[in-house]
Amino acid sequence: QVQLVESGGGLVQAGGSLRLSCAASGITFSINHVGWYRQAPGKQQDLVAGISSGGVTNYADTVKGRFTISRDNAKNTLYLQMNSLKPEDTAVYYCNARTTYPPYRTYWGQGTQVTVSS
Prior knowledge:
The chain is mainly beta. 0% of the residues lie in helices and 53% in strands.
């Protein structure tokens, strides 16, 4: 059974930093596509950052230069370092994993709330 467990969310002032973690069991991050999505109230869920199975990273334009996604293969854990946070970064952040082999499946964590006060 695949489980993705996020942690690290919280309340922070604008300009501050947070680091999100996503610990996985039942799936190996290093050979799959993994990433972070977020959903603000009343808005659609959007990709924040991702790492492909080959290690290529990509970021939403709104977070480039401020957020860094990384993966610890030994710990099978995904991270999102968020710096220079803005109130518009307030959202529930979700860890996501997509398998690169059949049957192709997508898994989600339960989400962690990030609130940035102005």
